[in-house]
Each structure stands twice: as structure tokens, then as C-alpha cells.
Design a protein that fits this description.
By secondary structure, the chain is α/β, with parallel strands linked by helices. It has 3 domains: about 30 residues; about 290 residues, Alpha/Beta hydrolase fold, catalytic domain (Rossmann fold); about 110 residues, Immunoglobulin-like (Sandwich), CATH 2.60.40. The strands form 3 sheets. It has an 8-stranded mixed sheet with strand order 1-2-4-3-5-6-7-8, sandwiched between helices. Strands 9-12-13-18-15-16 form a 6-stranded antiparallel sheet. The chain has a 4-stranded antiparallel sheet with strand order 10-11-14-17, with no helix packed on it. The termini are far apart.
Amino acid sequence: MRSNGLKRKYKFMEADRSTLLMLFLFMAMIPIDLLASNISTVISYQSSVSRDKNGPLDLYAELNYCIDHNNAPIAVVMHGYSPVSWSVNGVRANAQRLRDVGFFAISVSLRGRDGSDGIRDSGGVEIYDIYDAVEYVKSHFSAYVDPTNIHITGYSGGGGNVLSALTKFPDYFRAGSAYFGMSDYGYDLQTGWYFLGASSGHRKQLRSDVGDPSIGDPAIRDRYAARASYLASHNNPYSEIHLFVNQNELTCPPINDENFLKNATSHQKYLGEFKNIQLHIGGKGEYIDFNNDHINQSDELQDWPHGFPTAEQQHAAESWYLDRLLKGVIPQPVLRLSDEFYVAGYVKTKFFSLWIGDGQNAAGVLQYCFTSNYLKSFSLQLVTNDKTIISVLKVDTSDMTGKQVKVWTNSVETDEFVGGNIYTISNLRDGDTAKLESMPNSNIKIP
């Protein structure tokens, strides 16, 4: 009986070992993120500006975050130019590296990619998908994020998305970093990406999305003007902007970054106004001694060949700003009370937005001025060929709450309302001016 007992005990131990082995093998097949507190998931959200026959466009984004973190800064990580599917796969490693150091990472699948509704448009209305994704995360993942600390980064076509987003939403991002991005898809007939850097496949896609810029069609030229973020670079003297590109970059040549910086400084009102934009020309064998140990380390080499950066290449770039962004010491953008914008299709700030035409077929110069909380004035001049395009101006009047507000268009009083909500002027034309003026001591008593 003792012998049988030993045999039964041995068989139990053997079965137990088999069970443990199977359990180990099963656990080994589970992504390590699921064994820890790291989450990688795909969300569906809706466009706030575009619809199809089923309603607002349904869009997708991949999230990488840690449930142990709260008040994490948000990092938007943008994919490259062409892919229709698996677009976020290439940036997942970079997004997860940002997650691992404390960010809540959002990899946006722009419209027409990865199952997102809509039609791609190469830097047009699709840029709004980025804003909508961040707003969704701020609303639905509020326990994990700092909604005021938003960073955007991207590679190649994603770098172009970064430059567009920084100029279309100039007071939204604390920082932006563009790796070999394009600031002009084809507006300049020599240095635009269509003419300098784009492959035959890229040019074919641009012709489909925007049109052929080489045929001299004014309407096509207007569409490229609505995507020329370098012409709008002076919209943003607020965000800390880093432009990373190698001196021998061929696909998205350095001229894209140089023109972005050059246009901003050409509009400066005082010396050093655009010190927020820093151009880093790599590929020269230069090391930056970030840790002050007087040793050249591989993750300090300023070299960013075209593609998705390795961990070392990304570290060598992010060392310029990442720690300060994590600590929250890079300031929140605060819009000036008066300025001039180059509106490439549309612009949205915390206090007003302007939408020209369909958002991707025209550009204009908008001058605005806020005088305390009683006067807001705007003037618009279209700078593209079709001067018949109509624009929509939306103004936040929450600082005029309860006051009687008069609206003047081209010096003619056209409306009167009680302030407190978003006021819309839906028929602003080339050369028009608009003014919202609240009357002193005009508080309306609401029962």
C-alpha cells in the first residue's frame, strides 16, 4: 500500500508539473502588457466636422497607457504618409516607449486608414481627426491624463501632420516634434514635396488626394495653399517646436523645416520672437552631451535617417525636451489678444475658429483683436485665387455672459444677442470685417 501511495503521489506530482508547464506556456503567450498595468487598445471615436451617409465619420486610434499613472501628459504619435492599413504598426514601438516614461500615447489612424471612415486628403481636413481623438481621450480617460499637457510627434508624413496641427491649432499643444516632415505638399513649384522628394507613388497619391500641381490649375493651387503649413508657421509663437532632419535627407528634404522656420522669423514683431522653433540638422556626426559626462554615447548622436527612429535615435532627439514636458515646466500656450494668422483651410483656438470654404480648398489672412471682454474684431482677406469662397467664423462669448452684444459686419449692425455661448457668422467673405461689441452695464436679468 505504501508503494501504491508513492506511485499515486508521484503521478499527482507529475500531473501537477504538466499543469504548471501548460500554465507557464499559456502565460508566455500573453503579451507582457497584459501581465503588468500597461494597456494597448483601439478606440473608436467620431469626427466633429465630417459626415457620411451614416452620420459623423467613425474614426480609430490606438492607445498605449499605464493604468498606474494619473495626470499623465498626452503624446500624439503620428504614422507615415501612405499606408491604408496597419498604419499605426510602425509607430507602436515609439508610442510604447513614450508610455513607458510616463505619457498617455495616442496613435491616430487618420480617415481612410485602418478602417476609419472617410477619404484621405493629404494634410487637409484629416488633421482635424487628431484634435477629435485627443478631445475624446480627455473626455473618456480623464482619470489618467493631464488635459492641459499635450505633445504631438510624427515621422515623415506624420511629421507633416505635426506641422499642420501646430499651425491649425496654435494654442493647443505645449510641444511638437516633427521628424523629417513636409511643410509644403506642392504649393511651391520647386521646393514643394511633389517636386522635391516625393516618390512616383507619393506623387500619384497626391494627385488623387489634392490634384496635380504641375498643370497650372488655379483651383488645385488653392488646395495646396490650404496645406502649406510653412506659410502658417508664424501662427504659433507658443508651442515648443522641434524640427529634426538630416542634412542629406532626400525623401523630405531639410528645405521643409528651413522654410517653416524662415517664414515664422520673417513675421517676427521683435527679435527672438520665434525662439520656440528649434531646427536640428543631424547626420553630421555631432553628439550632444546631455548628461555632461564628457563621453559620446550612441543615444546622444544627432542622426535621424528616414524611417521610424530606433530607441537610441529617438532618445537623442527627445533629450531636448522630454523631461521638461513630463515635469510640466513647458508652459501651456496662451493666445495673444491680437495677431495675424495665415489660415490654411481652417484654424481653431480656444476663443474662436475660422473655417474657409470646405476646409481644404482656400487660404486667407485673418487679423483679430480682443479688447478686454467687450470688443472682439476680425478682418479676413483671402489669398488664394477663388475670391468667392465663403468662410464661417465662430466666436466664444462666454466672457460676455449675460451682456447684450451687438454684431457689426463691414461697419453695419447686423445682429444683437445675449452673450454666453458660441456665436456664428456663417457668411464671411473676402475683405469682410466683423465685430462683436458688448454694451457697458448691459447685464440681462435672467429669471
